[in-house]
């Protein structure tokens, strides 16, 4: 890794907060006129990346997108608003939370329709991982998300290790390739 000055900098959650609003058009919907899940994931990825860019101030790539809850459908013509912020920064990675609301433009009803957690990794223009600034949670909610993000990271790492073991066990010869 090409270490940068990253870890000597401390940023607040507020400085990473990002927001995006989209109108849902026919191209975004399925045959029922509901927003496609993949399209919503694209919006979530973009809004999540905005928070990660604001925190790291360098290039970022999506390492993982997990815990997506699609709570209720978004309909053609709705306004979708996504809000994101960094929950916790680690060494080169950041966990970002994204929350999504849909507004029915005729009734003005606003509903929480989805939530997701993503992990972004900071890299430089040559693709080398970069240290990210530390995050300072300030409010009670920010502190709760900060602590939860560590629990999710531990869970993610355990799940990755479990999948690796399962893959090895399923490979004839325990994963060794004979040439
Ligand atoms: C994500 C990527 C940079 C990680 O590179 P790597 O060399 O395997 O990373 P490492 O194992 O050294 O881990 C680097 C960091 O990423 C985190 N990370 C790596 N894989 C992860 C995963 N699947 N989920 C969550 N975090 C992950 C590690 O925890 C580590 O965080 P830390 O430095 O804060 O402790 C690399 O796998 C990659 O480039 N993937 C493709 C990304 C991409 O194309 N995304 C879609 C388009 S943007």
How many DSSP H or I helices?
2
Q: Spell out the helices and strands N to C.
A: EEHEEEEEH
| Chemical compounds bound to the protein | coenzyme A
Overall spatial form: globular
Radius of gyration: 19 Å
Major sheet strand order: 2-4-5-6-3
Task: Return the structural class.
Answer: alpha+beta
The portion of residues assigned to helices is 25-40%
Q: Largest sheet, described in full?
A: 5 strands, antiparallel
Task: Compose a concise summary of this entry.
The protein has helices spanning 37-56, 140-170; strands at 10-12, 18-23, 59-70, 79-89, 93-103, 110-123, 134-136.
Keywords:
179 residues; alpha+beta; 28% helix; binds coenzyme A
Structure description:
This protein is of the alpha+beta class and 179 residues long. The protein has two helices and seven strands. It has helices at 37-56, 140-170, and strands at 10-12, 18-23, 59-70, 79-89, 93-103, 110-123, 134-136. The strands form two sheets. A five-stranded antiparallel beta sheet has the order 2-4-5-6-3. A hairpin with a 3-residue loop joins strand 4 and strand 5. Coenzyme A (COA) binds at residues 61-64, 90-93, 119, 121, 129, 156.
